[in-house]
Amino acid sequence: MRKTKPSSLNEKTLLNRLLKNYALILVVVILFGMFSIGINTLWQSMGRGQITVQEAVDMISRSINDKNMQGKTMLNNLTDNQEKINSLNRYMDLPISNYLNYSYDQQLASGNYLFLPGQVRNFYTMYDNIESIAIVLNNYDGYYLSTLSNKGGIKKSGSPQLNNKFYLAYPITNQVTLEVLGSFYVEFSKKDMLDSLANLTSFGGLSAYVFSNTAYQLLVYSESPKQNDLQLIQQEMKKNSQLPIQTLKEKNQLEYLQTTSGFDILVTISKEKIFKHVFWDLRILIVGGIVLILLLLYLLYRTFTKYSHQVDIIMDSMARVSQGDLNTRIDEKTTQFELRELSKGINTMLDNSEQYIADIYKLEIKQQDAHMRALQSQISPHFLYNTLEYIRMYALSEGSEELADVVYAFSTLLRNNTDQAKTTTLAKELNFCEKYVYLYQMRYPDRVAYHFEIDDVLKDLTLPKFAIQPLIENYFVHGIDFSRNDNAISVKAQLIDEQVEIMIRDNGKGISTQKLALIRTKLSNTQIELHDSIGLQNVNERLRAFFGPTFLMNINPNEGKGVSITLSFKKEQKNEL
């Protein structure tokens, strides 16, 4: 026995094409889902990044505004009247001991104790975010400097060192003449802003830049320093006092604000950092998706391979059957589900085919035997015909013409029945039917009448033998009432517009509505059925097979009694039974 060859995924079979299509669909669906989730996550992350930079700008702006208000409040406390401005000038002009005496004298004269170191020291108490305070007067060399370590402050020569410090500068003006007398500098702590920026996002890559209205860099914050961006910003600010917004937007989520007090605030988040953060967040999804794809492909491959192997078993068995091995059967234990049912059906079909072949073989043997017997008994019909002819001639010689006619009619019927021809003419068929009715008329004298009429153009019309006789016989078996004396049957064959119409009409018992409906249903079935009946359905099927789709048999009850059967078909036909 030839072994089953398992299918390969490279073979061009429908099953393997389905496997590849299903696998492709699964992979595409999973990848599309992963891609959709990734795009949605990236889109949300970019949105969160934009919200973060906006929040950072707002936070820095609020912080600067608060510090600016604090600075203005401190400056106002020091310079809101001429007496306080005079106190600043005396501090810068006199030694500290002389300034102290000046302050005492002023207190005695006006009741206000204006002592600059004491006033500045109070500022540190009022505000906990001050790092240092510097005062510069235009008419004096040097400046006043107060720090956390020396809150009272001292006079120093030169100019204040403000590099890398977050300070706010305010002009000192004469409230009466509006003359600018100098500058007031307050250095604030960056810690609150830096802490707030550090807690704003989990992306990484957040950077913040603050510049004064004089393009001085007040604040630089970066979670992951990008020297290129910082250098670009510093160069542009030095060159034209403007931030390179458009250039930075190419690689960053960006928010820019210029406050009413002239500060430039710029916050960026690196898009690269956002992408990396999203990718890191999706790593489990990506790995899980790849594992799921591989697992599904493996399971799909195993399932289809097993299924394909079962199909191969069936195909192998069918190949052996096609090669003539009719004893081949499919092992139903090796198949499952619908393939098992298919295997059972094929095995049953093979069993039936084998039995059918055996029956046909036996039938052919019997048919050959029947032919032999027919040849051997061929003399018997001739002997019977000769005997009937002798009886007919004897009846004539004795003057019994009626008996001679009966014998002749019977002999004609016998010859027609033993004739092996499959077709006849319409004239011969009706002649045969007439003799059949004549015998009944002789059997039941004065009770049966008949009338046969045929157009001359239809006499030579070829049709199957016994096409009309069974319909007439049907009347004598089921429709005639022998208790009556007016039983009648007629057959009329005519040609109407190239359409042959043969009507068999009687005045018998008729037929019930239910039975008529059942007969019409069977006659309307276009499929030819094989059975042993010689009744209406048999005639219908034989004539339909002979004349083709143009043939139609109609059965209708008469207005009085009996039934009318109409056979109609096109005159042109060449079929042979």
TrEMBL record:
PROSITE patterns: HAMP
Gene Ontology terms, MF aspect: ATP binding; phosphorelay sensor kinase activity
Subcellular location(s) per record: Membrane
Keyword rRNA-binding tagged: no
Gene3D superfamilies: 6.10.340.10, Histidine kinase-like ATPase, C-terminal domain (3.30.565.10)
Keyword Membrane: yes
CDD domains on file: HAMP
Subcellular location, principal: membrane
Alphabetically ordered keywords of this record: ATP-binding, Kinase, Membrane, Nucleotide-binding, Phosphoprotein, Transferase, Transmembrane, Transmembrane helix
Cross-referenced InterPro entries: HAMP_dom, HATPase_C_sf, HATPase_dom, HptR, Sig_transdc_His_kin_internal
Transmembrane segments: 21-43, 278-301
Span of domain HAMP: 305-358
Gene Ontology cellular-component terms listed: membrane
A Pfam family assignment: His_kinase
PANTHER family on file: HISTIDINE KINASE-RELATED (PTHR42713), TWO-COMPONENT SENSOR KINASE YESM (PTHR42713:SF2)
Protein name: ATP-binding protein
Organism expressing this protein natively: Enterococcus rivorum
Lineage of the organism: Bacteria, Bacillati, Bacillota, Bacilli, Lactobacillales
